[in-house]
Structure prediction request, 108 residues.
Amino acid sequence: MTFHPLATQAILELAYFPINHARVGSLKRPLARWLTTRMSHNYRQAKKNEFINGTGYHIALRTILEERALPRESRLRDNLHSVRETLTEMTKAHILSEMKPFDGKLVY
Prediction:
């Protein structure tokens, strides 16, 4: 079996970052699995403890609702609660570092 030349080139240039499917599959919430996969694709420059410098991965609830097709609850607060529980699960699985308190901002 041979890989496509472009796939081989991406692997050799370290442009390909495999996902640990066993670790992602162990998460209970589908949203946690989706967010972990999304972060590994879109946030390759992550470093440990980046929150200390005020940098890190930022994602809006609106993006999660639109891209994940998460069903909108009658109260937006319920969706936010679901996302926060997902982040807690990801922290317990050591996918995320301990989080500092949320700085929630309402943006229309």
